Amino acid sequence: MSAKSNKLVTLDEYIIQSQNRFPGATGELSQLLRDIGLAAKIISREVNKAGITSLLGADGSTNIHGESVKKLDLFADQQLISALDRSLITCMVISEENDGIVRLNSQGGKYIVYLDPLDGSSNIDVNVSIGSIFSIYMREARFDPNLVESDALQPGVRQVAAGYVLYGSSTIMVYTTGMGVSAFTLDPSIGEFILSDDDFQMPEHGRIYSINEGSYNSWELGLKKYIKYCQEEDDETGRPYKARYIGSMVADVHRTLIKGGIFIYPASKRYPNGKLRLMYECNPLSFIIEQAGGISTDGERRIMEIMPDALHQETPIFIGSKKNVEKVKEFLKEYREEVVS
Ligand code: AHG
Ligand code: MN
Ligand code: MN
Fold this sequence. Notes:
Fructose-1,6-Bisphosphatase, Chain A, domain 1, D-Maltodextrin-Binding Protein, domain 2, 2 domains, 8-stranded mixed β-sheet, 5-stranded mixed β-sheet, 15 strands, 30% helix, binds 2,5-anhydro-1,6-di-O-phosphono-D-glucitol, binds manganese (II) ion
């Protein structure tokens, strides 16, 4: 991604300019995105100095998924939730770090926000890229004003905005409101996110595949065959493809967005429904990838059309460049049909 003009546009300026294109807009979604941007700057600062402030390492507890919680996970969770609470436009938050819905002070607020406050947290201790992921929905009008869990159970196609902040060699914020993908790079010297790309489109085909191959033995046959296909030699499609796996979905998908290719987290013996969470990992990253011209599927269904029945449900995911994802779908279909017949 690269800047298209010499004029520097900050995240706040960009959000206001975008909002001005819609005369009826109330500015609330813009405020929400700015709140997330502010929390992200604070998280970015802590991520960068985690080693010296002893925020590194586990805090000793486990989250609702039985995974050990790192101190920075909790810090990021608190920063994001309190930023959203302050501006009184979000009524509830669902976060990886909290079991049920978190009701905010503004019960009348229009927006529901899903968060993975820190994705890839097992990478914190080894100084590898991590990120915060968000997904925003509107609360639907109902007769009963009390907020319940089912208010939050909406399919990904109803997201009004989604994005992530990647704390990598630089800190980048990428988001969409359904009108293309915009990316911003944090300039730490002035503390501002600066527009680096507007309406970003990803390559239609890429030469990188990304999957944790340690679980190879328990994959379905079609996936095993597809990975072998990626490794075979073929000049026309540029195979063998390169293998890259960071272990932070947000960073693996960001690379896929920029360079093209495919990221896969499939069902396996250990994770029969996949490991990644539909509502705060798969849906928001699918919204970004689709807006950039890519595809995201669970193997059969478009990820964003899955009707959720639980806040923290998992799904297998195949996400990336159009041609790569179409190819893996062909393999899955062929070998699934063989099992049936
Ligand atoms: P989180 O740190 O939010 O719990 O997410 C970790 C996820 C995801 O980021 C990554 O793609 C995946 O776990 C890696 O899992 P494996 O170690 O099983 O490959
Ligand atoms: Mn995660
Ligand atoms: Mn997380």
